[in-house]
């Protein structure tokens, strides 16, 4: 597994990096057979240290956890415990999808845009009806099943997952509804 351990405006020593690799490696190996990458970022907010961890699995899932504490090691331990709990909770589902999938998930490229907000003035007519793009970046869209997308939504703590449906190759969306349920948008089924 490849580790990327960094700090935002704080120095991360070798001892902490070694500790993170051994402890996180132990947790991930217990629940996921083929992790590919772990990104760990330490930062400081006021008097607290914050540890954010994102683990990418070969099954296409991404698990995320965040921990806070007044000491940097305690922040990591809090994050590690949350990651352990999250992976333990979905262990059976991860293993079921893992055994059915023989090859790693394929990712396709796509563009992602961030649009500037519009002003709320009622009588002001905009100069152009085109939105102003303030950021444009590349993003990856996984080719997974609907079940894997729902699991990604739950494990990653995201509000929405855009994916290419392995069943028919079309782009689909699963999202968390306001009532707590999960919605699925499949444009192919609307005909």
Automatic annotation (TrEMBL):
GO biological process: negative regulation of translational elongation
Location of this chain's protein in the cell: Cytoplasm
InterPro entries linked to this entry: HPF/YfiA_ribosome-assoc, HPF_long/plastid, RHF-like, RHF/RaiA, Ribosom_S30AE_C, Ribosom_S30AE_C_sf
GO cellular component: cytosolic small ribosomal subunit
Sorted UniProt keywords: Cytoplasm, Translation regulation
Record GO terms (molecular function): ribosomal small subunit binding
Superkingdom to which the source organism belongs: Bacteria
Domain Sigma 54 modulation/S30EA ribosomal protein C-terminal per the UniProt entry, residue ranges: 130-183
Cytoplasm listed as a keyword: yes
Record's function text: Required for dimerization of active 70S ribosomes into 100S ribosomes in stationary phase; 100S ribosomes are translationally inactive and sometimes present during exponential growth.
Quaternary structure note: Associates exclusively with 100S ribosomes, which are dimers of 70S ribosomes.
Recorded family membership: Belongs to the HPF/YfiA ribosome-associated protein family. Long HPF subfamily.
Protein name according to UniProt: Ribosome hibernation promoting factor
Lineage: Bacteria, Pseudomonadati, Pseudomonadota, Alphaproteobacteria, Rhodobacterales
Gene: raiA
């Amino acid at each position: 597994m490849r580790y990327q351990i960094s700090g935002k405006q704080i120095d991360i020593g070798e001892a902490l990096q070694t500790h993170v690799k051994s402890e996180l490696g132990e947790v991930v190996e217990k629940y996921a057979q083929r992790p590919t990458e772990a990104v760990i970022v330490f930062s400081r907010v006021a008097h607290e240290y914050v540890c954010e961890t994102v683990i990418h699995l070969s099954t296409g899932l991404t698990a995320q956890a965040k921990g806070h504490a007044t000491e940097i090691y305690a922040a990591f331990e809090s994050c590690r415990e949350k990651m352990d709990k999250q992976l333990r909770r979905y262990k059976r589902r991860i293993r079921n999808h893992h055994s059915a999938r023989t090859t790693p998930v394929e990712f396709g490229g796509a563009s992602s845009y961030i649009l500037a907000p519009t002003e709320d003035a009622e009588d002001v007519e905009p100069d152009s009806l085109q939105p102003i793009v303030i950021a444009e970046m590349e993003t990856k869209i996984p080719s997974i099943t609907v079940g894997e997308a729902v699991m990604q939504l739950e494990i990653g703590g995201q509000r929405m997952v855009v994916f290419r449906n392995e069943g028919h190759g079309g782009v689909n969306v699963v999202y968390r509804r306001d009532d707590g349920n999960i919605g699925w948008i499949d444009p192919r089924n609307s005909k």
